[in-house]
TrEMBL record:
Protein name per Swiss-Prot or TrEMBL: OMP protein
InterPro entries: Olfactory_marker, Olfactory_marker_sf
Gene name, Swiss-Prot/TrEMBL: Omp
Annotated Gene3D superfamilies: Olfactory marker (2.60.120.390)
Pfam family, one: Olfactory_mark
SUPFAM superfamilies: Olfactory marker protein
GO-annotated biological processes: sensory perception of smell; signal transduction
Coiled-coil residues: none
Length: 159
């Protein structure tokens, strides 16, 4: 659908290496019996790091989300507000964007639902951030039995 003229579809790409790196930070703290830094966001077992690579950064206008879930469940998409390199700095809770995009599929439903207002605001914010970065990282939290392999998602912009 995004192949229409003037539309740009940017997929969420799972970043397994970054997810592994953040999980190692958590394990390291546990093994050393050390507390995380004040306000540090540690990756929960149901959270995974994804990225969106902006092949175009300017003149993007958010159109819609294209989130497809193979089975019922819920995914919460939280953006990060700044560049961060987990091996150099740690992700802090204050670096997480609000609102988050929450998408869910009810048992027996064909369509994925979301809170339209939050999803719209979040998408517009991503379009703004695209002007200053080539890559944006997201934390996706899967609940209600949903797993990363059951998600296909992208953000569609008017270019």
């Amino acid at each position: 659908m995004a192949a229409e003229a003037g539309m740009l579809e940017l997929p969420f790409v799972r970043d397994d290496q970054l997810t592994r790196c953040m999980r190692l930070r958590f394990q390291s703290l546990q093994q050393k019996n050390v507390r995380p830094q004040d306000g540090e966001k540690l990756l929960c077992p149901n959270e995974h790091v994804y990225r969106v690579d902006f092949i175009q950064q300017h003149n993007l206008r958010f159109l819609r989300w294209d989130i497809q879930l193979e089975r019922p469940g819920k995914v919460t998409v939280t953006g990060t507000s700044q560049h961060w390199t987990p091996d150099l700095t740690h992700l802090m809770n204050r670096q997480l964007l609000e609102p988050a995009g929450i998408f869910w599929k009810k048992p027996g439903a064909k369509e994925v639902e979301c809170n339209e207002a939050d999803a719209q605001e979040f998408g517009e914010r991503i379009a703004e951030l695209a002007q200053i970065r080539k890559v944006m990282y997201f934390l996706l939290a899967f609940t209600d039995g949903l797993e990363p392999a059951q998600l296909k998602g992208s953000i569609i912009f008017k270019a």
